[in-house]
Amino acid sequence: MEPKSEGTEGLRSIPALLLRNAAQFGDAPAYREKEFGIWQCWSWKRTADEVEALALGLLNLGVNPGDHIAIIGRNRPSLYYSMVAAQSVGAIPVPLYQDAVAEEMVYVLAHCGARFVIASDQEQVDKVIEIQDDLHQFEHMIYLDPRGLRKYDHSHLHQFSHILDQGRAARDEFLPELERRRSALTYDDTCVMLYTSGTTGKPKGVVLSNRNIIESARAASEFDKLKRTDEVLAYLPMAWVGDFIFSIGQSYWTGFCVNCPESADTLLTDLREIAPTYYFAPPRVFETQLTQITIRMEDASPLKQRMFRHFMAHARKVGPKILDGKSVGLLDRLKYALGELLVYGPLKNAMGFSRVRVGYTAGEAIGPEIFDFYRSLGINLKQLYGQTEASVFITVQPDGEVRSDTVGVPAPGVEIRIAENGEVYYRSPGVFVEYYKNPESTADTKDAEGWVATGDAGFIEESTGHLRIIDRAKDVGQMADGSMFAPKYVENKLKFYPNILEAVVFGAGRDRCVAFINIDLTAVGNWAERNNIAYASYQELAQHPQVLETIKRHIEEVNASVAQDEILSGCQVHRFLVLHKELDADDGEMTRTRKVRRKVIGEKFHDLVDALYDGSDSVYTETEVTYEDGRKGKIKATLKILDAKVVPVTGRMAAE
After folding, report:
1. Which one, of 400, 445, 402, 404, lies nearest residue 426 by Cα?
2. pLDDT for 59-72, tens place per residue?
3. Count of beta carbons in the 10 Å neighbourhood of residue 450
4. pLDDT digits (tens, 9 = 90+) for 411-461
């Protein structure tokens, strides 16, 4: 058995993996980035050279082992290898969400005591300058894009390219120190610190070691047979653990190429051009793409609409079976092949999924109808269940055992147990070291034997060994009659409809469930345009009588579906309203990873919740909002409240 401090094959750190890749397949592509409409490429050898130059520049700037270096910006090769350069000199990279406002950044930067910041552009630089008086350990900031920064005070502000040039110029002086620090890295040294999204309080700094990242990346890469020739598109926040595992951990372990889009606006075009073979997206992305498909089909000719509906009905019947290698009749296979030629193939190509060999969704439960839609097209979309504290992987779905109602079996090296109260616990080589400067939360989450409490309620199916997640443990409760209340189950069904962007269901301790709905402005706006319905604002469109009637139909269809579930049939929605604004992370209603903060919403809109339960048919409300430039304002609205038909259920089992 290898010593505890050693890594797999003696590779104890991400910088060690980089040196291996540069030596063994140095000319292969490591990164691509689209800039000014043209894809630029970095080989593994060039990446290693740039990481070394930046690491030398950081030594020249005075970076010490154990220093925290904040990384802020969109997905760019320069920021990815900034994290590896930081690791190379014994520092700890701390990526931040680029869309976070200055007030959110100040907590993270102050909490980790970042001495250095590497920022992408003027927008991010301005945020840090705005809060720098509250950052007592902050010393230097490095920026990638010099546009707009020429007249700034550069005594503590440095251009990225200049730091690289200084590193190269000082190579002879600092290379021995760099080699000493790099070779001193152990498997148990910190690889990265990632802050949780903070659904229930202040974000916590999750400390992940080289062991956590490399072992998790290795096991998952072997599980899905990832290869050096695979391609991924890096577009999710760099501060999110999933992006770090895919774009750093697995990329450096297997040697595949990470592709960075030009911007959020060009993402879908860039996705089609790269056509990744390994793809990850949260449910929100798949929901949005399905909405766009639905909109396009509504604008198509009657012939195309009929053809689409005909072949999609067939795909839903046999597509998943063909994907899983199960027995399907010859005529059905031939019809599916024709559908591939006429519908499925062009559709996958338009979405950029024509080459996807392994696709994953996680972060939130995906609606089963959405999940089944993509698999019916022949896209090998699977669910994984994970957490930042697990270095992502807790469960995965083996090929041939993919289902929409489970999150799979324990990932390689992971153990799972269910507590008496139904909460899911796990332990694995990926289990985090600690919450930074927070021993109390660390002890509450991870016990002495390494078991971690997920905060989710679920159970393991005896017949298959698959884990089923019901909801967040804190959200699962009981209705007044003792039946189970699991809001996420209903919300995911509602979000299948293109017109519904977000749903929040309330009902714990009550005699019935009620809901807030956010309409999808793209889908509903397209409907309004096609029907010559004029509207001046989101608020006006959200309260349009036909929109409300459409949402009511969707809710009643979901109620009919929920009524089929013996345990959760009590979660049917009796009354609802359509909110006058989109739920927004800037207003504290969602996390930066787009997870609903149910408690915050319930408290903030308590007047609306009360109106849903007291029989009112409308409610007046005033809500403070934050605009993109940081200004505060108020939205005033009178919201209509509607009743939805529920399906009577007899003999419903109460949750124990």
Report:
1. 445
2. 999 999 999 999 99
3. 12
4. 999 999 999 878 999 999 999 999 999 999 999 999 999 999 998 888 898
Strand (E) or helix (H) holding 208: strand 205-209
pLDDT of residue 652: 44
Distance CA 472, CA 486 (A): 8
Is 453:223 a contact under the CB 8 Å cutoff? no
Cβ pair 476, 423 in contact under 8 A: no
Structural tokens at position 90: 């014994």
- Residue 485 and residue 473 in contact, taking contact as beta carbons nearer than 8 Å: no
Of 188-202, 256-270, 278-292, least confident by mean pLDDT is: 188-202
Q: Which secondary structure element, helix H or strand E, spans residue 424, and what is its range?
A: strand 423-427
Map out the domains of the chain with their CATH numbers: 8-280 (3.40.50.12780), 477-643 (3.30.300.30)
389 three-class SS: helix
63 φψ region: left (φ > 0), alpha (ψ -120 to 50), beta (else): beta
Pair of tokens at residue 161:
């390219």
What is the reported pLDDT for 650? 60
**Nearest of 244, 292, 307, 262 to residue 38 by alpha carbon:** 262
Distance CA 163, CA 98 (A): 22
Q: What type of residue sits at position 302?
A: P
Q: What's the rounded Cα separation, in Å, for the pair 556 and 357?
A: 37
pLDDT tens-digit map of 338-371: 999 999 999 999 999 999 999 999 877 787 888 9
The whole-angstrom separation of Cα 173 and Cα 427 is 44
Distances in Å between the Cα of 137 and the Cα atoms of 61, 112, 272, 444 are 15, 10, 44, 29
Tokens standing for residue 64: 């010490």
Backbone φ and ψ for 68, nearest 5 degrees, come out as -100, 130
Indicate the average pLDDT of the chain. 91
Residues 6+ apart with CB under 8 A from 340: 378
Distance CA 157, CA 138 (A): 11
- Tracing tokens 């509903």 back to the chain, one arrives at 524
This prediction's pTM = 0.81
What is the distance between the alpha carbons of residues 74 and 99, in angstroms, rounded to a whole number?
A: 9
SS3 per-residue string spanning 514-525? EEEEEECHHHHH
> Is the dihedral angle over the CA atoms 253, 259, 263, 265 positive or is it negative?
negative
Measured CA to CA, the distance from residue 632 to residue 430 in angstroms comes to 42
Cα distance between residue 271 and residue 287, in whole Å: 16
State yes or no: pLDDT of 210 exceeds 50: yes
Burial letters 398-418, b for 16+ CB under 10 A, else e: eeeebbbebbbbbbbbbebee
pLDDT at 295: 84
Strand partners, 578: 517
Please report, for residues 33, 130, 587, 588, 638, the alpha-carbon distance to residue 103 in angstroms, rounded to integers and kept in the order given: 30, 9, 12, 12, 31
pLDDT score for 101: 86
